[in-house]
Write a structure and sequence with these properties.
Four copies of one chain form a homotetramer.
Chain A lengths: L10 E5 L14 E7 L4 H17 L5 E7 L5 H4 L2 H10 L6 E4 L7 H6 L6 E5 L5 E6 L4 H12 L14 E3 L2 E3 L5
């Protein structure tokens, strides 16, 4: 666990949100990000059902859930907003879903977070710091424990004095790579 | 159970098969057809895993499994061969998959079989007669029983004397709607 | 598959049946026997739920389900009728359950059938012949297929002319070891 | 959540522990207690597998798991130490299991905790205070969150100055009913 703020979300569009979202929008809440691809079986069978359970289990004013569509293969089949919208509609995904921006070999946010593939689950604390990232499966007990620990932490105002970096009582934060 | 031969498969292409396939190609074997859409959650979670289990459980020289992609919604997202190929690749679908021909409000084979939606599971006996059709789920015990019953039936040569219709010892068959 | 009648059920008592039962009592129906122990995890988690599904799936006038309590270990804990009755009550086992007779190193019916342990699933055809026996798990599709095959067979009156042995049109049956 | 210490464990014996155990033995660790009966299907199918997952997921020096056999029915079938030992052996229960003392209409610890039935899951914090109790099922995400929250709390020495009651910085504790 480092003390660096979570990198910014670099997106080309959003579903289920009237405006683009980024890490600071969730300040004060624990944020769970599920990076997925719509044609990734592990995402469909495990990752997405799990964050739907997370969204049902925890109060929305304490914890937020978002998806991030990080397409790095089969672009023709799953790379359009229409395909993603159809998928989100059929699978009843009601949370905001960002479309990771395609501007390199890998999508931009995927690169900024150093993700190894999909599904990747990321947890950001109330103060905007990335506290957990896992490629592949994590079971519900372990994930619940991580979320419970972070929910028990206060949202220290000082820690967010300068979300772009800087020092406070807990330490000094490196600004996000931006 | 009527004595009518199963309607012909009207397709615009096939995956996992070098040539187009139709009911008579499976003569002598029990044929299980899974009609699905790649963005249909019930197909992905239940129907397709079930016929993969069927394909593993029964000997290939006695029972054949095929898919039929009957797209009737979200055509932009799932209506291309590329999208289906990516899906089949990611979900490790190794059986032949026909693409139901789009030439009306509903795909042509879907209409010919009177399907109500996806997933629909169809079982054709060794002699080319449709013996079972179910929209939605069927559990493994019940499906296994149906397949066991049909596998126990001999492939009476006479019954197939005229696969396009005609009479034999078991009765008179109406020719397929063609 | 031999043509020998299923060995007799040698029991010291029955639950859920006013009278003792034996193979000939099920003549005309396919009979599924689940040999189990109440403290056998594989029986509780797989075998017993599976035959409860079997009992729900098939019509009772065509197929019967019974249990056989074949205690070969932990006799003090699970060897009494009271323990079995409490277990059957809590697990809602409504089918007849025979108590395999304890008169040797192994229970008598367990020995007669050559069972290797619990759970063991046995299927007897409409004519009283043992057609399938499996120690351990069998999945629903495969079991359903076996049952479907046997349900499709007629109960030939002649084959049961002499259930204790003898010859008929299908062949000559060795009398049960009795 | 009150500030009362968890009631004492009133037992007539233990499995998987050379000595009797009680709440103060777990001081400094979060303690998860699963109250169960060996013939309770909900315990066998959900409660016990869940605390086995808990035991595997969390480090033993931070969190302890114990069972409590609270027999309140079918005493003849499940009320002996032999029956429980056979059950624990077959289900591979490796954690300490206390046998709730039979000295009233209900077992003594069951009464002291006001349990409504089995399974009941109880969580005691590092300082010996009961923080959670649930009759029936709780899903893994929610349980994980509770455990994560309690694991994040320090074991304040002062809070345990007088585990039998008394006041400290957090408040005043009613002595356990003893």
């Amino acid at each position: 666990m480092d003390l660096r703020p979570a990198p910014a979300l670099i997106t080309s569009g959003w579903l289920n949100s009237p405006t683009p979202l980024d890490i600071p929008d969730f300040r004060g809440r624990v944020l769970v990000i599920e990076a997925f691809q719509m044609l990734c079986p592990g995402c469909v069978e495990h990752g997405l059902p799990q964050i739907q359970r997370v969204a049902r289990t925890f109060p929305a004013d304490q914890l937020a859930v978002i998806g991030l569509h990080t397409v790095f293969e089969h672009h023709a089949a799953q790379g359009t907003r229409e395909a993603l919208a159809a998928f989100a509609h059929e699978y009843r995904l009601g949370f905001p879903i960002g479309i990771d921006r395609q501007d390199g070999a890998l999508p931009a946010t995927m690169t900024a977070y150093g993700m190894q593939g999909t599904p990747t689950l990321i947890v950001v604390d109330r103060n905007g710091f990335r506290r957990f990232q896992r490629f592949g499966h994590i079971d519900d007990l372990a994930l619940g424990s991580i979320l419970g620990t972070l929910l028990a932490e206060p949202a220290a105002a000082s820690a967010m004095a300068d979300p772009a970096g800087g020092c406070d009582a807990t330490g000094c934060a490196v600004p996000p790579a931006a």
